[in-house]
Amino acid sequence: MNDEIKNIKKIIINSSFELDCGKTIKNFPLAYETYGTLNKSKNNAVFAFHALTGDQFVTNVNPITKREGWWTTAVGPGKAIDTNKYFVICSNVLGGCMGSFGPREINPETNKVYGTTFPVITIRDMVRAQKYLLDHLGIKKLLAVTGGSMGGMQVLQFTSLYPDKTHSAIPIACSASHSAQNIALNELGRQAIMTDPNWKKENSTPDKGLAIARMAAHITYLSKQGLQEKFGRKLQDKGSLKFGFDADFQIESYLRHQGATFVDRFDANSYLYITRAMDYFDLEKQFNGNLSLAFKNTKSKFCVISFSSDWLYPTIENKEIVIALNACGANVGFVEINSDKGHDSFLLDVPEFLKTISEFLNSTYNEINNNEKRI
Amino acid sequence: MKKEFEVISQIIQSNKRVLDIGCGDGTLMEYLKIKQQNDVRGLEPQKDLVQKCISKGLSVIEGDAEKELVQFPKKSFDYVVLSQTLQAFLNPEGVLDQLLRIGKQTIVSIPNFGYWKVRLQLLIKGTMPITKSLPNEWYNTPNLHMCTIQDFVNFCKKKNIKIDKSMCLTNEKISEITNRNMSYKNIFSQLGIFLIQ
Questions:
Q1: Which residues of B touch A329 (CB under 8 A)?
Q2: How far is the alpha carbon of A60 from chain B, nearest alpha carbon, in Å?
Q3: Which run of H or E residues covers position B19?
Q4: Does A149 participate in catalysis according to the annotation?
């Protein structure tokens, strides 16, 4: 695994970078991956921002975890975000654990991993760091920025910080400020990690805490109806109830499996830092309570997408973004996709959703190419 | 493109900001955008139609005009278009107030319930009228508040709404409505198109 980690593509950000928390960092790595080819006019680049537990390996097999990339359903040759046509970029967020500067890195001053001495980062910090990657790749203007969940928050932050850096933006299943319910759920996960006796212990990891955090979070990514249809009250062994506390029900063993496999690929402290960044995200507050000011100067065309059964980032929160964009006269379309797969819908094979992104991107791409020809 | 849309796009001309309410599959929007270089937005309650519009590159928001219009700022569009939908709202008066607030000018078209074939069916057959432009039965029609051309003009007067243009479609032919021909047009036209503010 270590060899593979060494092969991860990275840029080193040399300039001193002031974080929102007030601390300054310098000479830190940002890991990334690209798919497809950047065309001559450099106008086919799509920046995909990953969600809480994602990484830069959007599609194909992730070389580190050996599992499929997190957005294989949407990104790849011939897929909605077609890598035969577009150049897809994704970077591991600041605070992540797939090669970017995060709590798992070694602090050169102490020669120990940062752990909880790592500075608290924000969505804005993540996005500002990723802007360096764009400059490094020599891309003046993206075709699109997109992402779901925390990826969507980065989309909003990006368009707000850089109003003329992308032709279009597709925020999916997200929110412009994290709700009390979402902060509460994140806190539940963090407490599970922090109360694990192995947390902060040298040479050990709070695997149990992290697994429980993942189990709880995983429930929030699904919907009641989806769970009922997939698992119902089905038993693990077809026989009968065992009258004990082993995983009698299929849903229990499914969740246990989700928790157990997660700890192999994710760092517990990264989980703390990234969930914190999500909780701190409040674009409205960045603009003194007026969200539409966040998009005042935007030149991008937006396509906001939500899912009918998503109760974590419900349609109503996505619509707040649409309302703010409308209030400042921005170019915005919005559709709620019918799906019973909950928040996770954006990662799954939901044909109407994939068709919408594919066609929106395609029409935007044609539009800018026609305009360039005309000029 | 249907005659009604030709009339509407002629009123709008080019390089304007337009909001099309109940934009359907975006036929009018596409024409206004591509042929007349207008900056167009749409609002449509039906998901599949919204998706169709988005795939054409049109910026359309899924939503219900009775709830969504409040979010648009005052006079933020040169034209707001409402084609044959006014009669389907629970509160057409409220919607119209919003249209007039958002648009510098508003284009409203209404299927004319005073059309002679409609009158005749009710008079002779004694049943709720079914025509080309009103194809549904009374029990499944989306139209809750039907009105005639005369009704709409009276309504505008009562509400102090200024009518800049009133036109009508009679068998696909467009003509102007005047005070003098009003009762005639109210019998022989299928559709009224009004530019108001």
A1: 17, 73, 76
A2: 27
A3: strand B17-21
A4: yes
Could you tell me which of B55, B57, B50 has the C-alpha nearest to residue B34?
Answer: B57
DSSP class of residue A61 equals B
* Per-residue confidence band for B194, with pLDDT thresholds at 50, 70 and 90: very high
The pLDDT tens digits for A95-111 are 999 999 999 999 999 99
pLDDT in tens, B113-164: 999 999 999 999 999 999 888 899 999 999 999 999 999 999 999 999 999 9
* pLDDT tens profile A15-25: 999 999 999 99
Q: In chain B, what residues touch A367 (CB-CB under 8 Å)?
A: 57
Mean pLDDT, chain A, as a whole number?
96
Q: What is the pLDDT of residues B24-64, one digit of tens each?
A: 999 999 999 999 999 999 999 999 999 999 999 999 999 99
Q: Which residues pair with B164 in a beta bridge?
A: none
> Contact A99/A31 with Cβ under 8 angstroms?
yes
Q: Which of A149, A160, A300, A306 is catalytic?
A: A149
- Cβ within 8 Å of A, B 48-107: 50-51, 53-63, 71-73, 76
Choose the closest CB to A338 out of B17, B47, B55: B47
Task: List domains and CATH numbers for chain A.
Answer: 2-179+279-374 (3.40.50.1820)
Residue A373 confidence (pLDDT)? 73
Query: How distant is the alpha carbon of residue A182 from its chain centre?
Result: 15
**Rounded average pLDDT over A269-283:** 98
Angle at B77 between CA B11 and CA B9, to 5 degrees: 20
Domains, chain B, in order of start with CATH, read: 3-113+145-196 (3.40.50.150)
Catalytic: A267?
Answer: no
- Contact list, A332 vs chain B (CB under 8 Å): 41, 59, 61
- Closest by CA to A366, choosing from B55, B103, B129, is B55
pLDDT tens per residue across span A148-168: 999 999 999 999 999 999 999
Of B128, B119, B126, whose CA–CA distance to B190 is shortest? B119
The residue ranges of DSSP E strands in chain A, in sequence order, are 9-13, 17-18, 24-25, 28-35, 45-48, 75-76, 81-82, 87-91, 106-107, 112-113, 142-148, 166-172, 301-307, 331-337
Judged against a pLDDT cut of 90, whether residue A6 lies above it is answered with no
Kindly state the greatest CA–CA separation across chain B.
Answer: 49
A370 touching chain B per CB within 8 A: no
Higher pLDDT, A3 or A84: A84
For residue B62, what are the contacts with CB-CB under 8 A and spacing of at least 6? A334, A335, A336, B44, B45, B47, B50
Structure-block tokens of residue A199 = 């947390």
